[in-house]
Each structure stands twice: as structure tokens, then as C-alpha cells.
Write a structure and sequence with these properties.
Layout: H1 7-29, H2 33-56, H3 61-96, H4 98-112, H5 119-136, H6 144-163, H7 165-175, H8 180-218, H9 224-234, H10 243-255, H11 259-288, H12 293-307, H13 311-358
Family: Belongs to the autoinducer-2 exporter (AI-2E) (TC 2.A.86) family.
Protein name: AI-2E family transporter
Pfam families: AI-2E_transport (PF01594)
């Protein structure tokens, strides 16, 4: 069959067609990208269990996958959704009742003697912050149908990633434009990031959230369970973390004249909560993925505005991948230079031998 295109033109047009179609697909699914990212994170987290039950104990893979889906929904998705809804509800309350925050600010101003800001600015900042946090967290208020579709698509993708695990892994190895060693490095980076920023960080955040909530409850801070939930989410942020919760609580107690309770919160926060945070991070870092805190912090700043709450993992992962690819690029360039140097040395050696033979 005759064609007006040369083989090279056909190849270029084929690649262009693939890129255009992929662009349409990505544009159409952009609202549900968190479902695929969440499925990938769950796959990495639960893969050791799947391997132990299916490949070692020879259990039925469909049955094991169904159990893992039920486990992830009951133990991971529902509690996290409940915490998110609780946090969003309280944030919306404070955004509509800014007088409570204004009273606290006035007391802090009376204690310190510094004018912080005008009431109008406080109301605007609180409302903007409430809207921003609500957009980051999953909520039924943002659209029940979209939420159900995202959760269903995530679990559906998760199911086939395990049931068709071998085909899934072969497809990645076949179509990723990297050498096998590079793919292994990227896979190891993904594993380290998920372990450090999901399993390890979630454990650290849970401990800090519980300690913060109990501390505030002991020292009679109102809404201590709510602030414990806030501390859980804030603990994902390196360096800052829970001091953003118990620090203001201590200042509020001091501004209200409860010096003993305010000092007690500061002592427990500085001596217990911060040190436990550092101890757990150091202990878990080597066990669950050695990720530099600067990579985590910069990744969170990068990922959260783009991917929402999943940016806590995706952001550091992107930076880690960037670092790995730079290292791969540097290594391959070095190996290429060494090969070129060897070839040049061989050519010079042959030339010298020919010169000696002539003489």
C-alpha cells in the first residue's frame, strides 16, 4: 500500500499522536490523579504483606487482594477521612466565629504589649486559611460523587495492581525510558520515601498528636481532642510541627493568668514531645527510609499545593527522583568519558605499534 510519508515521518507522526492522545487522557483524568497516586502508595505499603501471603504461603491472590482492600479501607481510609472531616468542621466553625480568635489575640497583645494586626486582617487570614486547608483535605462537602469516584477508582486500580502484578511490573520495566539499574534505584527511592513519609511519619505524627492532646487535656485547654488532631497533621511538617499547636496554647494560658498551666505545657512540649519526636525520627530513619529532613520539608512545600494531602509523600518523592536522576546522569556521563578515554588509549596504542613496526 502506497503512502505519502517516509518511514522517518511515520515514526515522528506516531510519537506525536501518542503524545497528543496521552495529553487528552491526562487532561480528562486530572481531577482523579490522586486516585492513581493513592493506589501506588497503598501498593508500596502493602506489597510486603501480599508477597508473604501469596508468593510464600501460596494463598489465593484475589482473596488476599480483597482482604488488603478491606484492611486499607477500614484501617487507613476511614480513620483518616474521619479526622479530616473533624478538622474541617472545626476550621469552618472558627472561620465563621472569628471573635473567639480575636479575643485570644487581644489577650496575647495585652500580655506582650505588641499590636499584632487589625481585626479585619485577622478575619481575612482566618477565612483564607480555612478555605486553603479545606481544599487540601478530602471532604464529602467538596462533592460526594467526586469523593466516591476517587475512592472507588483508587481501590479498583489497587486491586488490578496486585491481581495482575507480574504484568504490571513487566509493563513498567518495558516502557520506562531508563536502564534496569536506574529503575531499581527509582524503585528503592519510592520505597524509602513511602516508608519514611507514610509509615514512619504517620507513626511519629500519631505519637505526637496523642501526646499533645493528652498534655492539653491535663492542663485544661479547651477542645484538647481537636487540637490533638491538629497536632497530628502539623507533625508531618519537619522542624515546625507540633510546637505550632502547644506553643500558642501555652501562650494563651499565660495570657489568661494561668502561669502554672502555661509553663507546664511549655515544659512538657520542650522536654517530652520534641525529644520524643527527635528520638523516633532518628530511630525510624534508618529502619524505614533514610530521607534527609530538608528533602522532606522542601518536598512538602512543593507537593501539598499541587497534590493536596498526598503531596506529603509525592513532593519529597519528586525531589528524591530528581536527585536520583541527577546521580544517574552524572554516573553515565562518567562511564561514557571513561569508555571514550579507553578507546582513545587503544587507538594511540595501535598507532604507536604501527609506528614501531615501520621503524
Amino acid at each position: 500500500m502506497n503512502t505519502i510519508y517516509t518511514p522517518k515521518q511515520q515514526r515522528v507522526l506516531l510519537i506525536a499522536s501518542l503524545i497528543i492522545i496521552a495529553g487528552f487522557i491526562i487532561a480528562g483524568l486530572r481531577g482523579y490523579v490522586t486516585a492513581f497516586l493513592g493506589a501506588g502508595i497503598l501498593y508500596v505499603v502493602l506489597r510486603p504483606w501480599f508477597t508473604a501471603l501469596v508468593h510464600k504461603r501460596k494463598w489465593n491472590r484475589q482473596f488476599v487482594t480483597t482482604l488488603l482492600i478491606i484492611f486499607s479501607f477500614v484501617v487507613i481510609i476511614m480513620p483518616f477521612l474521619t479526622l479530616s472531616l473533624l478538622l474541617i468542621g472545626r476550621i469552618q466553625y472558627y472561620s465563621q466565629h472569628t471573635e473567639d480568635i480575636l479575643n485570644l489575640i487581644h489577650k496575647a497583645e495585652d500580655l506582650t504589649g505588641f499590636k499584632i494586626t487589625s481585626p479585619q486582617n485577622v478575619r481575612q487570614l482566618v477565612q483564607q486559611g480555612a478555605g486553603y486547608v479545606s481544599r487540601l483535605l478530602p471532604s464529602l462537602a467538596g462533592g460526594a460523587l467526586d469523593f466516591i469516584v476517587i475512592i472507588g477508582l483508587m481501590l479498583f486500580t489497587f486491586y488490578f495492581m496486585f491481581v495482575q502484578q507480574e504484568a504490571f511490573q513487566k509493563g513498567l520495566q518495558k516502557y520506562l525510558p531508563f536502564k534496569r539499574d536506574t529503575q531499581q534505584e527509582l524503585g528503592e527511592s519510592l520505597k524509602n520515601n513511602v516508608n519514611a513519609n507514610v509509615l514512619g511519619q504517620a507513626l511519629v505524627s500519631l505519637v505526637q498528636g496523642v501526646l499533645t492532646g493528652v498534655t492539653l487535656w491535663i492542663f485544661n485547654v479547651s477542645d484538647a481532642p481537636f487540637w490533638g488532631v491538629v497536632a497530628f497533621f502539623m507533625a508531618f511538617i519537619p522542624v515546625l510541627g507540633t510546637p505550632l499547636v502547644w506553643g500558642p496554647a501555652a501562650l494563651i494560658k499565660l495570657s489568661q493568668g494561668d502561669t502554672g498551666q502555661g509553663v507546664g505545657i511549655l515544659i512538657v512540649g520542650i522536654v517530652v514531645i520534641i525529644n520524643i519526636d527527635n528520638l523516633l525520627r532518628i530511630t525510624l530513619a534508618k529502619r524505614m527510609g533514610d530521607i534527609h529532613p530538608l528533602v522532606t520539608l522542601a518536598g512538602i512545600v512543593l507537593g501539598v499545593p499541587i497534590f493536596g494531602i498526598l503531596g506529603l509523600v509525592i513532593g519529597p518523592l519528586l525531589l528524591s527522583y530528581f536527585i536520583v536522576l541527577i546521580q544517574v546522569f552524572e554516573r553515565e556521563n562518567r562511564e561514557q568519558r571513561e569508555e571514550v578515554a579507553k578507546d582513545e588509549a587503544k587507538v594511540e596504542e595501535k598507532a604507536e605499534k604501527k609506528a614501531e613496526q615501520r621503524t
